Amino acid sequence: xxxxxxxxxxxxxxxxxxxxxxxxxxxxxxxxxxxxxxxxxxxxxxxxxxxxxxxxxxxxxxxxxxxxxxxxxxxxxxxxxxxxxxxxxxxxxxxxxxxxxxxxxxxxxxxxxxxxxxxxxxxxxxxxxxxxxxxxxxxxxxxxxxxxxxxxxxxxxxxxxxxxxxxxxxxxxxxxxxxxxxxxxxxxxxxxxxxxxxxxxxxxxxxxxxxxxxxxxxxxxxxxxxxxxxxxxxxxxxxxxxxxxxxxxxxxxxxxxxxxxxxxxxxxxxxxxxxxxxxxxxxxxxxxxxxxxxxxxxxxxxxxxxxxxxxxxxxxxxxxxxxxxxxxxx
Length: 330
Ligand SMILES: [Zn+2]
What we know:
Strand content: 15-25%
Shape: elongated
Bound molecules: zinc ion
Number of strands: 9
Strand order of the largest sheet: 1-4-5-9-8-7-6
Mean pLDDT: 89
Order of helices and strands: HHHHHHEEHEHEEHEEEHEHH
Radius of gyration: 39 Å
């Protein structure tokens, strides 16, 4: 038996120990066989042998348990070494990240308007009908509401479809002059090649007391801004309609892909629409109790600016989180 116990103490791993256990206590093991022999003996001899066998078994079990504990601990340590995070890995060749093109585009635009003394205003993503529609000159019966497919909650609140409600909230909270931009996420029930249910806008609003602000101010600031953002492009203003402004204009730049020659992206027109703008409709001021003021507003889609600036063909790739795309913006 001492021989077996020495073997147990010398066992190198759990598998070796288990093999030893089977050779002693398994079906055909040494002690099992010895115990089986007991029934062939007379009562006296049986008692004697049983006593010594039980002592051997106890000694064996004790040695086995002790070694089992030691080897389990060793095995656990080995496993932990294997699974441990190798922090030195992050030291070597650690790659620094970069801003997502949506964020960097947003930052570039914000920087421009902040340098012109615009404040940056934020508002809630969950809005009510008044701020998102009604105060923006979109009464319930207004056909322009069909232009926007809205996510509604059961209680009638909604995910804002535009950043314009921030303009209403800002005007309700402060007296003119107002000189603000409102960047942020907006939501519409749209999903295809050029639409995603969540996207980003920046809107700007300038309101001054009296008749200080005109369409000419709006035009000059937008021309300067588009040259800042896109460089040397041609710019044109087209008459348009928005409920919030009157008169209204959409702003086009010459196509950044074909330089105005005509391509698939600009549908062979040579122009790309990039902004909506206009003089604030006097109706809007009634909702915020402004009197004797003048102002202009404009709005743009961040995704569109990012795609045109970086020449990204598919809008959806901006939201897939694919590192192969993102690594290009380091
Ligand atoms: Zn083009």
